[in-house]
């Protein structure tokens, strides 16, 4: 039972409502203003209940306001709804007695009467149900619980699988069957194995695994929350880049399509780093020395390369001073360059082009990058479009909210941001866009998301080139 002095939430809401109603009454407002005036003038005022002897008094100085006294006395006997006149500004002569007492209005009685009246009116209406009872739960950070989940039935299936293993212990090779019994994807086998302590002992007993999986079913109610729980460190509800390494290492070791990597163990870490970095951005310490100016046959402008190495979008200062990129920064650059349609890529290139970092691409900044494009076009015997005409085209393309100022939000809302960026710093892709049918570009924008991404296209093309080169080399060696 709650303490008598503590109001229940619903009752407290009602009391607060009645008090606000009383406080908003014109009569109450006038009385409070008069009291405040008396207090400021230093007068003495009695706050009592009718003729009771128990009165509390406040003593002030000699400047008594007779008009206020008369007004308060008359108002205390007037009906609640009677209008009141503002207090007079006349004061007593300085010789007036300083001990004169003002009989104030029956403020407390008035407050009770108003509150009682309001309470009687409000009590006729039904008390509304508490909000916490009428709004259903809508936030499920670990998935919405399933109503008819048969946990004991799922555990029985897992125990049946473990009974097939010696001493009811499963090794990492056996975890594919266990993952299937858990109704999980095949390549969750390593995270399942490690979460049950298999990485420390080399095997998982049925008792440890059942205890782990039962708790998982009781706390995680969808595949996403289960995956995060399996990979994350104990006590964490988020994933870091290194959390993916055991999972990806098992994929490299057991996936049939990656059999060619088994013999190249030195390449394992680079492959895992690339995949995990594509999935999750964090700092990676593998160093790479690469000449970005030669990327894609020198398609990227030197001004943009200088911006990349200036630290705008790179993380490792030590390598940047040496004119090198970390492997993480190179992967980030490559993904952003080959697929400029994603939000992350749009942010990457926006930071590069925003020279003063004010969050807006000004006309000066656009002209700064376009100048080098014009020089490249002239060396190719192609007459460049004047900057003013190019600017009009780009503004029509992006349609910024503020005229003459292009923001990151404008580019994210524009489905043709890749054309915008290529116009200013990638000469090869700019020429490709110029040779395309404008209507086909519009159709591509309308069907965005219905086909594979530009990054997937790039990866497939590079893979085909690699296979062709290896085939040619093998034929030459056999030959």
Automatic annotation (TrEMBL):
Record keywords, A-Z: Calcium, Metal-binding
GO MF, one example: calcium ion binding
Signal peptide segment: none
Pfam families attached to this UniProt entry: EF-hand_13, EF-hand_7, P2R3B_EF-hand
Biased composition (Low complexity): 76-98
Database matches in InterPro entries: EF-hand-dom_pair (IPR011992), EF-hand_13 (IPR041534), EF_Hand_1_Ca_BS (IPR018247), EF_hand_dom (IPR002048), P2R3A_B_D_EF-hand (IPR048855)
A GO cellular component entry from the record: protein phosphatase type 2A complex
Ranges where the EF-hand domain occurs: 341-376
Region ranges (Disordered): 63-126
Tagged with keyword RNA-binding: no
The protein's name: Protein phosphatase 2, regulatory subunit B'', beta
The organism of origin for this protein: Oncorhynchus kisutch
